[in-house]
Amino acid sequence: MSAHRLPPLPGQLAIPAQTRTESPCPTPASLERFNTEPAADAERALLTCLRSLRWARRLADHRPYPDLDSLLAAADEASYDLTPGDLAEALAAEALPELPDGAYSAAHTALSAAHAAYESRFGHAFVIYVDHASPDEALNQVLAGIRSRLANEPEEERVVAAEELRRLAKGRLVGLLRGAGNCATSHI
Question: pTM (2 decimals)?
Answer without folding.
Answer: 0.76
